[in-house]
């Protein structure tokens, strides 16, 4: 069965410190992985997807099929990164339905 | 392009009542998905409509239903409301065409059941 796991509900880091938000998934086949972000009082929006292999706002994520992970990383956290982050999965095996993790609330301490 | 819009933004209902939520997708998008967002469960998929047909369905009871109109606007209905239905209901639109396409989310409807 398809599943996305985000083990950390809450994560706090100091400004300028590296940050890593963990995401593990289960999926039979080749999934498409996404990170969505929800800033305070804003709607959920796409941060990045693995197929684009882009760095958005300094964030990167690498799909590790061996470890079935798609961790989100940023070398130097900024206060404006404080938000709720959701990892999501989709693909042909899900009928292109999206499965979301339970989210990680990131707080960057000034 | 105008973004996804949802109405109403806030609703207060009592147990046993029913409620209808509306979602207008981005122009040209044919797929609308609905999610229930709660602090403990995150986003849980309700259903997806594409070209007026339900294409995917999550694990919610039959009290939750939806439909899509020819202009791609979608409505979600919840009958016999329960306290546990209190949540933020999000809709997301996408092109819905071949392959996985990015979902664009609306601001949500905050439903409170008393």
Structural class of chain A: mainly beta
Distance between the termini of chain B: 37 Å
Q: What portion of the residues of chain A fall into strands of 2 or more residues?
A: 35-45%
Tally of alpha and pi helices of chain B: 0
Helix content of chain A: under 10%
Query: How many separate helices of chain A?
Result: 0
What is the alpha-carbon Rg of chain A in Å? 13 Å
Q: Which overall shape of chain A is indicated by the principal axes computed on the Cα atoms?
A: globular
Determine Rg of chain B (CA atoms, Å).
13 Å
Q: What gross morphology of chain B would you assign?
A: globular
Report the uncertain regions of chain A: none
Quick recap of the structure?
The complex is a heterodimer of chains A (110) and B (114). Chain A has 110 residues and is mainly β.
Topology:
The complex is a heterodimer of chains A (110) and B (114).
Chain A lengths: L2 E3 L4 E5 L4 E3 L2 E3 L5 E7 L6 E5 L10 E2 L10 E3 L8 E8 L8 E2 L3 E6 L1
Chain B lengths: L4 E3 L2 E4 L5 E6 L6 E8 L3 E9 L2 E5 L6 E5 L5 E5 L8 E8 L9 E2 L3 E5 L1
Parallel strand pairs in B: 2-11
Antiparallel strand pairs in B: 1-3, 3-8, 4-5, 4-9, 5-6, 7-8, 9-10, 9-11
């Amino acid at each position: 069965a398809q599943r996305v796991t985000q083990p950390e509900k809450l994560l706090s880091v100091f400004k300028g410190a590296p940050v890593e938000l963990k995401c593990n998934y289960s999926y039979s086949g080749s999934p498409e992985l996404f990170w969505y972000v929800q800033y305070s009082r804003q709607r959920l929006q796409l941060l990045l997807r693995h197929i684009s292999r882009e760095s958005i706002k300094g964030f990167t994520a690498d799909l590790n099929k061996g470890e079935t992970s798609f961790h989100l990383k940023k070398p130097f956290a900024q206060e404006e990164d404080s938000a709720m982050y959701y990892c999501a999965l989709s693909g042909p095996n899900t009928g292109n339905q999206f499965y979301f993790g339970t989210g990680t609330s990131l707080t960057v301490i000034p | 392009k105008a973004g996804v819009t949802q109405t109403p933004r806030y609703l207060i209902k009592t147990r046993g009542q029913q409620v209808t939520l509306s979602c207008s997708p981005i122009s040209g998008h044919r797929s609308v998905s609905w999610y229930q967002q709660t602090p403990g469960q995150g986003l849980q998929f309700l259903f997806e409509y594409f070209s007026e047909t339900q294409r995917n369905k999550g694990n919610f009871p039959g009290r939750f239903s939806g439909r899509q109109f020819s202009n791609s606007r979608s409505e979600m209905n919840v009958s016999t409301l329960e306290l546990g239905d209190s949540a933020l209901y999000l809709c997301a639109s996408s092109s819905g065409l071949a392959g996985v396409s990015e979902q664009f989310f609306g601001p949500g409807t905050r439903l409170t059941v008393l």
